[in-house]
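sry for the spam today, last one i promise. struct tokens for design, 447 residues
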């Protein structure tokens, strides 16, 4: 008996290993300077001109001052058309399953006002430069990016796992803060304030003075302090997301106990205290979390109607935006964009409340704009969404307000509503690391 492996099997195994982990060639990466945008989107528009070419030009907002309230660069534009329950069939190929379900569930109140498409997603030149480097050196090993820093890790994505990591590591600035409210939508259409807080965030992955050699793998830091409602005033939550999930951690300060507690499972479909337990960790901004529980499939690219350039909705009060069973459609701007469609299916032996999901990633910035989740009975359960704002000072088109609608129960959740606050997503200097640690939280919890 021999334990030698046939040379042909070794060759096949090597081939699959190369396909699974290899970065793209220098020749293919060169497309990022020709037919592709620096972050990997198609430069050219579509054939009928409804999606324009990407130019990379910044979008100015007249009268806007960095660090304050944000204006609307397209305030004078009017909708080209509206999609309603009555004409949804006409646009069926441009709608996600979740959007179709919302039109059917709320035929009298939900609609899409569709505006002219603007491809506003940009980033600093140094992010473009790092993205080009990542294209030829970044790999996925054990569900973690290796060899990536300071840019989109896989701008010419070949797999669904690479595409979803592009979303996780999308450009949204390096350090910032925001004041925001969060609301629960009950089954009978009542809107309940669950959080009135200030959120501070770092993305160490995008520290301009950092490097791949010195990078420690923490890519997203968050610090949330609640000022209200009264029952939650003084609560604090901190967390650090790492490529190595064993190093990811989160802590909460509970005012009633005057203690800092480490969250035992700050991931996946576990409810997050940041939303009063109404949203799971991996529903944050459509998707956030571990990728190893799912098989990811890159279905392809498609033209879809998505919420985009959403500065319009920042111009009204919270109460006029969050009302009834969903956001007020008068203030939500939809545009036609090309998106990457990524499907996630739960691996055998793993558990999750949503065994199957589909996500729609912006081709220009890689952020997930919409997502749909099916439950264990294969019922379309939740539709997830996020709003992207034009932020010239970042610069970029940055996702901030997000939420979900539960299509089965009729409930919903809306997070990071900035409208009633004095400033919207203010870029800041780098926050100190201890602001995001358990020890740092213990020193600040005083109520």
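last one done:
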């Amino acid at each position: 008996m021999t334990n030698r492996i046939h040379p042909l099997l070794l060759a096949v195994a090597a081939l699959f290993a190369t396909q699974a982990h290899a970065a793209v060639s220098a020749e293919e990466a060169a497309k990022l300077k020709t037919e592709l945008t620096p972050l990997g989107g198609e430069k050219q528009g579509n054939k009928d001109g409804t999606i324009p070419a990407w130019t990379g030009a910044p979008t100015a907002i007249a009268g806007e001052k960095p660090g304050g309230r944000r204006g609307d660069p397209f305030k004078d534009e009017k909708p080209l058309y509206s999609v309603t329950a009555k004409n949804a069939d006409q646009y069926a190929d441009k709608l996600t399953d979740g959007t179709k379900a919302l039109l059917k569930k709320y035929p009298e109140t939900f609609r899409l006002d569709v505006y002219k498409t603007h491809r506003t997603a940009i980033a600093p030149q140094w992010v473009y430069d790092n993205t080009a480097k990542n294209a030829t050196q970044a790999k996925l090993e054990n569900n973690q990016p290796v060899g990536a820093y300071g840019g989109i890790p896989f701008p010419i994505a070949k797999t669904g796992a690479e595409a979803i990591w592009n979303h996780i590591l999308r450009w949204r600035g390096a350090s910032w803060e925001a004041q925001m409210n969060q609301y629960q939508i009950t089954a009978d259409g009542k809107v309940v304030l669950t959080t009135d807080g200030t959120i501070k965030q770092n993305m160490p992955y995008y520290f301009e003075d950092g490097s791949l050699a010195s990078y420690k793998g923490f890519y997203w830091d968050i610090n949330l302090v609640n000022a209200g409602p009264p029952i939650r005033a003084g609560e604090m939550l901190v967390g650090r997301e790492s490529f190595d999930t064993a190093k990811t951690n989160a802590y909460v300060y509970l005012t009633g106990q005057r203690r800092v507690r480490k969250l035992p499972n700050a991931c996946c479909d576990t409810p997050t205290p940041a939303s009063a337990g109404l949203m799971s960790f991996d529903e944050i901004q459509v998707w956030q979390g571990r990728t190893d529980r799912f098989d990811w499939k890159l279905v392809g690219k498609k033209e879809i109607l998505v919420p985009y350039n959403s500065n319009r909705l920042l111009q009204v009060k919270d109460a006029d935006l969050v009302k009834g069973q969903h956001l007020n459609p008068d203030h939500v701007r939809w545009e036609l964009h090309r998106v990457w469609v990524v499907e996630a299916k739960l691996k055998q032996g793993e558990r999750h409340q949503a065994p199957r999901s589909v996500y729609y990633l912006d081709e220009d910035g890689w952020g997930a704009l919409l997502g749909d989740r099916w439950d264990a009975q294969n019922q379309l359960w939740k539709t997830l969404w996020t709003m992207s704002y034009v932020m010239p000072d970042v610069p970029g088109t940055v996702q901030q307000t997000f939420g979900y609608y539960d299509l089965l129960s009729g409930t919903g959740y809306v997070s990071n509503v900035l409208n009633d606050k004095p400033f919207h997503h203010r870029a800041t200097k780098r926050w100190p690391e201890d602001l995001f640690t358990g020890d740092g939280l213990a020193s600040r919890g005083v109520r």
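Confidence is low (pLDDT under 50) at residues 1-20. ok im logging off now
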